[in-house]
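Wed. Picked up where I left off yesterday with Signal peptide peptidase-like. The coffee machine is broken again, so keeping this brief.
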Amino acid sequence: MDLRRLSRVVTVLAVISLLCYPASVTAGDIVHDDDLAPKKPGCENDFVLVKVQTWINGIEDEEFVGVGARFGTTIVSKEKNANQDPLTLSDPRDCCSTPKKKYAGDVIMVDRGHCKFTTKANIAEAAGASAVLIINNQKELYKMVCEPDETDLDIHIPAVMLPQDAGASLEKMLLNSSSVSVQLYSPRRPIVDVAEVFLWLMAVGTILCASYWSAWSAREAAIEQDKLLKDAADEIPNAKAVEATGVSGVVDINTASAVLFVVVASCFLVMLYKLMSYWFIDLLVILFCIGGVEGLQTCLVALLSRWFRRAGESYIKIPFFGAISHLTLAVSPFCIAFAVVWAVYRKVSFAWIGQDILGIALIITVLQIVHVPNLKVGTVLLSCAFMYDIFWVFVSKKLFHESVMIVVARGDKSGEDGIPMLLKIPRMFDPWGGYSIIGFGDILLPGLVIAFSLRYDWLANKSLRAGYFLWAMLAYGLGLLITYVALNLMDGHGQPALLYIVPFTLGTFLTLGKKRGDLRVLWTRGEPERPCPHVQLQYSHELNEEK
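Structure written out below (tokens, as returned):
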């Protein structure tokens, strides 16, 4: 492979699979833990997100989200069990000294500062408050912990911190209304959300469609090659030249590009992490739209060419673009318009549909263009991706004090709900909302090996059960399913999908190949031995001459 083709392969793989994100939710985890805030008796609650539902003059109004403290009583999980208590401003505002009046079951709102969190909670409880809302002096939330030497931790009311802007809204409500009451509760996520089921089906279906398209193209190319070799039987040098040609437009990656992929993808990921901002998200949106247009156009042309064969086979020459079929020319405006509309309205609630359509089309197109030539390259690629995923999800916490992969996947610091290079579905039955997401790399990288397995099966004329594709596909589906199980067991903390997918997919492929005696061919050649028509014809011709 020359340097230009190697560069093309690495660029394609890096841009798509640098976002090899864990299956996660973008609304944030509901249960948090923190090793820097050790637990002790009276101060051992998990940090949970808390909903603060407001009621103005008996009418339900705005809802805010805060975080529960390490100390105090736990927040109820069901809204029907949450009391609706009056909200009152503390006097003094910081609640660092005894209030001027009793609160008799009210929820009091206090300012952060001037004393410990536990001091505020103890004073509020002594004044008869049912709960305390502590307003942060910043727009972010802050984890309320206990000091190492604190002993007065027998607190029997919940304490919740709210961001500064929420505090300003609540204070405005109190000043403009005669009666404001609040409910505090922390609903739990469902064990399994329908979104995860649909996302699993989307990932498996994408690889399934891409694999069959890739295998069909490879078989058509093999049939065409055999015809050319038969026609060139009398000109053996030309036949050999025909034999050396491969599938048009297909790029085979090698072990060097597979290893280099990890380096380039890591550089891209760090760049995303460091430069994450509004303008950088806009740049990613533009790049995603360009790739999505190309992918959607390729898929539509391939589908429509079956019904509009003449338009697909007639070409027109366009400056800067060269020869383009009439069908491509007709489809392109629709694809461009689709991507532009999505980019403009990408923040609306249903924009995920357009993002998934563009993303799936892009993944299918890449799997059609980029091929793994043998199992050796596939093993190196997936092994490198396996280490890449683990490092940037788990190990990066030690270097950057947060998981770089998850921060980038959620679009933190960008002001947007995640970045575009991923498939997402809203969590339909989750009281916290958010999205279940999966990165392109978690579909694309295993998809390269699975598509290779089906190409091999078809060229070797193997049945579905006797081949490798069925078992590789099942292994991928099982690995992705285990990912979602781990995601739910870890309370929504992002998981590196390739941690589970690679061992299942690659292990199944290697084990079956070894057991069936095909491993050497799969590892080196990547395709079964096929009789060469021109060699057979030449051998027959030599036999006739000897007679």
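Quick read: The chain has a mean pLDDT of 83.
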